[in-house]
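User: Please predict the structure of the protein below. I'd like the answer in structure-token form so I can feed it into my own downstream comparison script.

Assistant: Understood. Taking the following sequence of 216 residues as input:
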Amino acid sequence: MKPPLTNREEAGKLLALRLNAYAQQPEVIVLGLPRGGVPVAFSIAQTLKLPLDICLVRKLGVPEREELAMGAIATGDVTIINHNIVNSLGVTNEILDQVIQSERQELQRREQVYRGDRPYLKLQNQTVILVDDGIATGSTMLAAIQAVNQQKPQLIVVATPIVFASACSQLQTQISQLICLIKPKMLYSISCWYEDFTQVSDAEVCYYLSQTYLEK
């Protein structure tokens, strides 16, 4: 059976149709979650003629099962732990601390590579559209929401092509609006819903940021 989505860029254009009320609004900013969320966010920002930036977040993957998130970290010393997963899999505090430390180092590396001297966009009193290429457990997006909330935005909207039903209720209590294309009840890999789910490179993230509407 053919997956419903061709690639991340197409998914972003489809989401933009549902976000059209925000098009060309002066106090709206699109933030993509690197790496996979950036092509989706880029399509949204270009279609709606909105500024694009990134919200740096790192999933805390379970050792030897890295695709399964046991939490997430974000800029601003944000840490989210999914204690249900940690406890059910017997992840020790020592292992958890090691994963957090490793991912913080990667977060710092990406900050330098993606942003360099590029200034942050001011989010205070803005409507922020947070974008990822899919949401499974919700830990990564919850960390992003917490990081953005530190800057006191007016509203937070989450836009994603796929969000599993189990994550919806937790997310919706934290934001103003959740926009999605597909809401599966069963937890499958996000990649199952795309024809092309090729890993996004650092160079591609930098390219998308260099082509943003804000810089034209």
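That's the full token string. The longest strand covers residues 65-74.
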